[in-house]
Amino acid sequence: MGSAIVLGLAGPSARAATEGPRVDGSASGELAQGARLALRIDAAEVGGWPGLHRLDLSLLVGGQAVETITYDVERQKLGIGEQDVFAGTGGLVAGSYLRVSGTQVIVTTGGANLSLAAMAAVLRTIPSDARVRFAATDDAGLMSSVTRPVQAARGGGGVSWGTVIATVCVALLGGAFLGNLFASSRRPPPRLSVYSSIQRRIEEERPAQTSAP
Known about the structure:
The chain has helices at residues 2-19, 161-185, 194-211, and strands at 22-29, 36-44, 52-61, 64-72, 77-80, 83-86, 92-94, 98-110, 113-122, 131-138, 143-149, 151-152. The protein is of the alpha+beta class. Strands 7-8-9-2-1-12 form a six-stranded mixed β-sheet, with no helix packed on it. The longest helix has 25 residues, at 161-185.
């Protein structure tokens, strides 16, 4: 019975150690050449996100991977093929379908979770039936993956991160400017100083003293 209890308690940990990381993701945007795709992958590792080794975002056409974006967790580098760039810095990586700038990659971590978001430029029109496979591999070599369709957006290429950030900054700066302007318009008129009041009083009394016998 004792052995059964120990095995029962160890069961969930053993299963977690052999199942690999949890992973999910999304891809949205326009598929035409010159448009942009917003990519996001979320991974979680039992014991903490530093146990993750690599993330892969693969563009699938006809069920075959035609382009793969990789992220090396330890080196903090994003790559396509033989090209790589540090996340958050300048430089570009490009393949046949997608191009990504390091400045348009955001990685957030906390606890067991690691999330990566990237804005990719579409270099070649992507077929409408394309899908994206999101995969995460941990330091033990265990891999998990999930495949999602591309959520096509309407319009001329979608909204870039730069446009969103610029809009937010303009709104914040505009709000601060208007607030200061409003506060300035409500300021009371300046008061006369004490010295001005004394000088005016002396000038008023001087004629009276001059006319006295």
